[in-house]
Structure formats: C-alpha cells, structure tokens
Design brief:
This protein is mostly helical. The chain is built from 18 helices and two strands.
Length: 422
C-alpha cells in the first residue's frame, strides 16, 4: 500500500474511532500479516497444548484430547466469526467491554460493561502470568535434563517468571516500533518450529503407540469417575484455544482495523486449529510410558517425550528451545495486549487511579504506566507459586475461564460490520 493510501486509511480509522467517542493517541503501525503473527503468537495452539499435555494424558488420554480439540475448534470458529464481525463495526481497544456498553440495553449496559471489563482484564493478565510460568518450566526443565543432579525449586521458577516479565516490559517500552516486524517474524518462526518438531519426533521415534491407543483407548489416572475425568480433559483443549481475540485489543495500533482485525482473529483460529490437531495426533503416537512421562523429573512431560523420541539430551533441548522462544514472543504479545486493555479500561474510568493508567507517553505513543501495571500484576500472580502450587493452578483456571466468560458476555444484537466485505 502506498504512503498516501496508508495515510488515508489511517485518517479514516481515526474518524471511526472519533465517532465511537475516543481520540487517537497510539501510533498505527500494524498491517494484516503482522497482526496475524501477533495473534497467533498468543494463540499458538500447538505450544499451549504441549505445555499442559499432562492434563489430557491423565484425564481421558489421547482420544479425549483429539476429539475434544476438534469440538472446541468448531465452536471456537463460531465465536471467532461473531467477535470478528463486531470488531469490524467497533474497532476500539476496549474490545468486549466496549461492545457491551454500546450494544446492551441501556438499563444494564453500564453494569454489564464494567463486569465484562474486569473479566477481560483478569483473564488476559492471568494468561500472561501462566505463559511466564510455562516458559520458566521449559527453561528449568532443560536445565534438569542436562544436569540431572540439579533440583528445581519453586523459587527458581518464580525468579525466571520475573525475568521473562521484565524482558517483555523492556521490549514493550523501548521497542514498540518493532512489534509489527517482530510479529511477522514470529509467524514464520512459529510455523517453522512446528514443522521441525513434528518431523523430528515422528522420524526419530522408533516405539510409536498403536492407533488404538491414540484414537480409542480411554485413560483415567485422575481417581475420579470416567465422566468427570473426560470433563477435566476438556480443560487442555480449552486452554489451547484462548486469546484469539487479541487483535480486538490492538485495533488502535492497526492501519486498517475495521477490515484487517477481523481477518486476523479468524485466521489465527484456523491456523491454530490445524497445527493443534496435527500436533496432538503426532505427540500421542510418540508418548512412551504414561506414568513415566507424567512424573518426569524435568517437570515438563513434553520435554520427556522429546527425549524419549530422539534419545538425545541435545536433541530434546534443541526442540524445547524452539518452544521457549515462542513462549517468550508470546509473553511480549500478551503484555502488549494486557497493557492496551488496561489503558482502554482506565480511559473509560474503570480502574482505580484511572487518569494515571490512561496516560499515553507523547514521544513513544504507548501507555507506559499501563505496561508497568500489567507487568506488576503478572509478577504478583506468579509470586503465588512461592507458597502453593494449588493456588497457582487456580490462576491457570482463571486465565481460561476469564477468557471464555468475557466472550460469552459480549454476544448482543449488533449492526453489520465489514467482515462480510472480504
């Protein structure tokens, strides 16, 4: 797109935002490919599924993991198309809570919007903390695999989560102009890493499970009834398809959000659905002893599967490192999404001390205070792991349920947007 056309498109989007009652304060830099990369770096279904693999393995086994994933993807696409259509009509960083305020009956709009906003922010920030935790587990898991005498302690994990959060904060504050380029590169890296991981484990693993184990045999290591175990197994699939609405919270930094944000939302779901299904089937064929995998000293069953498949510590660490970089990119994107959501909510006076967090730095054109708040909340949530694993597992549940709840609250009748003009 030429510079003149880009400027015209930007001016048009500024006018649309003005009609919605907001002034354009952030710099528009994201194109379509960059936003698809940004969204998929957060969704990154195959990585997310691998990070919570043990839940599915113990709660129903491969059949529940695979078939529930197909069902989750079908329903997710239905929701994604609906969200994309609304986003095309109301391209504002507030996302779901703004849509509720505009579309709900006036009598309940204010209360429903406020409630949706808090669900939205809680889910995004909790997901950021969860992602930092996953990254820390992968890093320390590789250390344990390489040096078996090393024993992972809780405080080690928490300190690494702090490091990941701080790196993301520094990049968000001092490199906002790089987000679009980074996101485009991440999309290529993510797909390349996926191909490398799948090809390697299938080629190297010489003790694959039979098809009956993957598609038929039900596993229940939870101690609960069969039905309840299957319900627990759904959590893995649900976690693997979260935060595909990320473009809705970055619309004020996109060149043509009315047209391109909806496409990014839907495309990230399609890419996630396909890569997630291929990953699940491949990894289930390569799982060795379930008990041994679940109780791996690395603390990460996927690392154990990599090691069992390749028979090499170097090979397992190489494959795991590919995922670590994806998790780091995801941390950066989640912090950006979370800070823009906090900024939007503060702009509408939804937070304590809203004027502070709604402030945009004039030189960098980013909400620095909101970024620092998002980082602080993520670190606070990660600190729970100092005291209790059960408490932090609750954060993971909040991350998943907060996302689902905020999408459920945003379904109201609306005027047709621009999604139908593809």
């Amino acid at each position: 797109m030429s510079t003149a056309k880009t400027q015209d498109a930007s001016n048009h989007e500024d006018a649309v935002l003005s009609k919605l009652g907001y002034q354009q304060e952030l710099k528009r830099s994201f194109g379509l490919l960059g936003m698809i990369g940004f969204s998929f770096s957060i969704v990154t279904s195959w990585t997310a599924l691998g990070s919570v693999l043990i839940i599915g393995v113990q709660s129903g086994g491969p059949p529940v993991m695979i078939y529930s994933w197909i069902g989750i993807c079908v329903f997710t696409l239905a929701v994604a198309y609906s969200l994309a259509e609304i986003c095309s009509a109301f391209p504002t960083n507030g996302g779901q809570y703004s849509w509720v305020a505009m579309l709900a009956p006036p009598r309940i709009a204010r209360g429903m919007s406020w409630m949706t906003g808090w669900f939205m922010i809680t889910g995004i920030l909790a997901m950021g903390a969860t992602n930092n935790f996953i990254g820390a587990n992968f890093i320390l898991g590789q250390a344990n695999l390489s040096f078996p005498s090393y024993e992972i302690q809780r405080w080690h994990t928490v300190l690494v989560t702090y490091l990941i959060a701080c790196i993301s904060t520094i990049l968000n504050i001092f490199g906002p102009h790089l987000l679009d380029k980074i996101s485009r590169g991440v999309l290529i890296w993510n797909i390349a890493a996926f191909v490398i991981v799948i090809t390697t484990i299938l080629a190297c693993n010489d003790h694959k499970q039979p098809a009956s184990f993957v598609f038929r045999d039900f596993e229940n290591l939870t101690g609960f009834s069969t039905g309840y175990a299957a319900i627990l197994g759904l959590l893995q699939s649900s976690f693997g398809m979260c935060c595909y609405d990320a473009p809705a919270h970055m619309t004020e930094e996109m060149l043509q959000p009315s047209r391109e944000a909806p496409k990014a939302i839907v495309m990230s779901v399609y890419i996630g659905a396909v890569t997630g299904l291929i990953f699940l089937i491949s990894i289930c064929f390569c799982i060795g002893d379930i008990t041994g995998t679940a109780e791996s000293m690395t603390g990460v069953p996927l690392i154990q599967i990599f090691y069992d498949s390749t028979g090499s510590t170097v090979g397992a660490c190489f494959l795991s490192s590919l995922l670590v970089l994806i998790v780091l990119f995801c941390a950066n994107a989640l912090l950006a999404e979370g800070s823009r959501s906090l900024f939007a909510f503060a702009r509408d006076h939804g937070l304590p001390f809203s004027p502070i967090f709604a402030k945009v730095d004039g030189e960098r054109q980013i909400p620095i205070c909101a970024i620092l708040l998002a980082c602080g909340v993520q670190m606070a949530l990660n600190s729970i792991y100092f005291g209790t694993l059960t408490g932090f597992n609750t954060i993971i549940s909040i991350a998943t349920e907060g996302f689902c709840k905020r999408d459920a609250d945003s379904k109201f009748p609306y005027e047709k947007g621009q999604l139908t003009m593809w």
